Amino acid sequence: MQKRLAVTVLCLLSTTPALADGNAETGAAVFKKCAACHAVGEGAKNKVGPELNGILGRKVAAVEGFNYSPAFKAKAEEGWSWDETHLTEYLANPKAYIKGTKMAFPGLKKPEEIADIIAYLKTFPSP
After folding, report:
1. Which residues, 6 or more positions from 127, have their beta carbon under 8 angstroms from its beta carbon?
2. How far apart are the C-alpha atoms of 65 and 27, rounded to whole Å?
3. Of 104, 82, 107, 112, whose CA–CA distance to 92 is shortest?
4. How far apart are CA 60 and CA 54, in angstroms?
5. Exposed, middle or buried by CB within 10 Å (0-12, 13-18, 19+), for 67?
6. Would you report the helix, strand and coil content of the chain in percent, each value rounded to 5?
7. Percent of the chain whose pLDDT exceeds 70
8. Is the dihedral of CA 34, 39, 40, 41 positive or negative?
9. 94 CA to centre of own chain
10. For the segment 57-111, what is each residue's pLDDT rounded down to a tens digit?
11. Of the residues 1, 35, 72, 75, which has the fewest C-beta atoms closer than 10 A?
């Protein structure tokens, strides 16, 4: 019984995304894929997509002045906030995770790139 429990726990841990293991420096390079539509840092403004300062912990669809899709507005009404789990799943396949999103980006296929971008985004808290 204990062996079965240990195997189950190990299986669960091995399938959980490495949420906090990213490298912010590497994430800065990966973020270049996002920079055409999103901005971060001092003075960041909305572009085709909303600025991403302080995204972790922020409610979904909460950036002032950005026109979100109905799909994002519905998630906001459900009370969603951006945490590492939501960002990980969303960045892997935006259109599948939030059906109806306007984001055209197909997603990042490498889990380490997702972890790196999340680590990078953490370096930009809310102003």
Report:
1. 42, 53, 54
2. 27
3. 107
4. 11
5. exposed
6. 45, 0, 55
7. 84
8. positive
9. 9
10. 999 999 999 999 999 999 999 999 999 999 999 999 999 999 999 999 999 999 9
11. 1
Residue type, 60: V
The 10 Å CB-count burial string (b at 16+, else e) for 1-33 is eeeeeeeeeeeeeeeebebeebebebbbebbee
How many CA atoms, within 13 angstroms, populate the side-chain half-sphere of residue 69?
Answer: 14
* Residue recorded with tokens 């519905």: 74
**Structure token pair of residue 116:** 């790196």
The residue with tokens 């912010």 is 24
Task: Look up residue 60 and give its two tokens.
Answer: 């979904």
CA distance 26 to 95: 25
Q: What is the pTM of this model?
A: 0.81
What size, in residues, is the chain? Answer: 127
| Residue in the structure block whose two tokens are 């302080």 | 54
